[in-house]
Structure to design on (278 residues):
């Protein structure tokens, strides 16, 4: 039976046959993000096994900086590879190379074309050595499918981070408070906004706790469950925080900022800023 055509939301260009290198094809896609968020995402090696858990299960950073990173990664089949990403801001591109493991010698060249303040076009070329000419189209489509999934996940992170950055306030209004009807367990965590900032109201150890809705690392969501030890995990990078102290317990230097006090009366829960000490 003939293979059904792949219904893609991006453009896939087949391999360029006259190429003197092993070109598998080209992936093209428009993204609703800024260049700053895109560079930030490219340099963010930490998010791979968390946001892209269907593709990666572990990562060990070997070197990282403002020009790129090199890391040992484990895929969902348990195979290890060493990947290197080199960012060239002048050319608005980055090159990802496979230095060890499956697809050794493969290179992925990503070029960015800015089309607006928060819009861009990506053009990504896949090069994999040793692939027979008659198999390159199939391999190129496999890479395109994989990148479709990766960028579907990445764009959600980038746009949410931009939303959080856009709505941050420079100061707090200490006199403000907010009351909500006492939520039941099924509605927890409950999102509550106070002084323009988003918090989650939740229960732990039979008591109310409140913590930021966004991770202090890169503003990822903290909407998951609190575990039995009183910790919450960021879905983007796996950073873990103690919901009572606000400390990061996974080794990073970041911690929760100021959180409101909690009181309960007559079936309502109130969040308010404590008065500054005299």
């Amino acid at each position: 039976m003939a293979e059904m055509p792949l219904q893609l939301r991006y453009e896939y260009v087949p391999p360029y046959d006259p190429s003197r290198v092993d070109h598998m094809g080209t992936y093209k896609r428009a993204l609703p993000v800024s260049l700053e968020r895109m560079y930030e995402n490219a340099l963010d090696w930490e998010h791979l096994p968390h946001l892209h858990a269907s593709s990666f299960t572990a990562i060990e950073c070997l070197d990282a900086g403002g020009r790129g990173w090199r890391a040992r990664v484990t895929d969902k089949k348990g195979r290890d590879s060493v990947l290197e990403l080199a960012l060239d801001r002048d050319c608005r591109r980055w090159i990802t190379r496979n230095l060890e493991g499956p697809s050794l010698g493969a290179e992925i060249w990503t070029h960015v074309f800015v089309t607006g303040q928060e819009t861009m076009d990506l053009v990504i070329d896949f090069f994999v050595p040793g692939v027979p000419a008659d198999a390159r189209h199939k391999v190129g489509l496999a890479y395109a499918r994989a990148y479709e999934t990766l960028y579907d996940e990445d764009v959600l992170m980038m746009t949410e981070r931009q939303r959080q950055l856009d709505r941050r306030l420079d100061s707090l209004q200490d006199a403000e408070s907010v009351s909500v009807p006492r939520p039941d367990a099924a509605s927890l965590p409950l999102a509550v906004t106070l002084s323009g900032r988003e918090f989650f109201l939740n229960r732990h150890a039979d008591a109310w706790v409140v913590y930021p809705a966004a991770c202090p690392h890169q503003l990822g969501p903290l909407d998951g469950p609190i575990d039995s030890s009183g910790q919450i995990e960021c879905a983007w990078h796996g950073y873990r925080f103690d919901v009572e102290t606000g400390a990061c317990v996974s080794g990073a230097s970041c911690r929760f900022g100021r959180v409101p006090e909690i009181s309960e009366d007559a079936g309502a829960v109130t969040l308010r800023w404590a008065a500054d000490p005299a």
In short: The mean pLDDT is 90. The domain at 11-167 is CATH 3.30.530.20 (Alpha-D-Glucose-1,6-Bisphosphate; Chain A, domain 4).
